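A quick word before the example. In earlier lectures we treated sequence and structure as two separate objects. From today on, think of them as two lines of the same record. Here is Alpha/beta hydrolase fold-3 domain-containing protein written that way.
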Amino acid sequence: MDSISDEVVHDFQGFFKAYKDGRMERYPSPANVSAGLDSKTGVQTKDILLSPETGVKARTFVPKFNTPHRKLPLLVHYHGGGFSIGSPFIASWTNFLTCMAYEANVIAISIDYRLAPEHLLPIAYNDSLAALQWIAKHSKGSGPEPLLNNHVDFQRVFLAGDSGRATIANYVAIQAEVNALPGVNIVGLLMVHPYFGDPQEENIIYKIMSPESLGSDKDPQLNPAVDPNLSKMWCKKVLVCVAENDGVQKDHLNVVGKSYYEKVKKSEWKGSVELVENENEGHCFHLSNPMHDMSLG
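And the structure line, produced from the sequence above:
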């Protein structure tokens, strides 16, 4: 390979490198962990294929049932990773969602949307909305996955996203109003350390992943705070979680999260929004410490 091909134009540390010849090289991701029974919590994980056409998969997290036919709320989760790394199958998200399913006594399903830069945006958004539509097929008990048919209370569905993928959760909450989902009631939206990017630096990486985008300061998908349809979110409650020391500049993303909270609060949306701040914590600290504030010992 010649020197021109080896020349790196952009190096997005932790995500991917862009070479002068057009190649993209993703940084190594943590190894996947197998699905199965968690002996400490009794939570059972299972991997399912949502779409043979796109290859989109998901991992489900099911707490131990004390009553065999009981139905539980459903948490639909979109993992972080800058649209270009991560999956529900690595240890950090598996451990966190295992704890979430156990502590909150919910069934969780985390969507493995296709990643950029191989799959340019808005593919991740399209996959995520399609996944919710696939889930909705089970609301009448006749979908392809028995677990969802038999054990999910579709009147209590919640959407959640970490970091930048909080934008996906917000997008899906808005699109759910437009794309009718019979039998599904989205109760709440959980925005965990929302990251809408830096309009000066992050537009470079977003332009690579989404060439048609206007940039993170103007694109409603990348920045829900500028979405004119924000008031159309199809849910009753929004919980915004921020960390005191979140961001390269110590608290940049803390400010972003609080600004989003204020934007929702002042919009014409009819639901209730709440802000929770964790002091002395950084971005997505819960992934390295999923037992934080939990009573698992």
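Notice the following. Residues 252-266 form the longest helix (15 residues). We will return to this example when we discuss secondary structure assignment.
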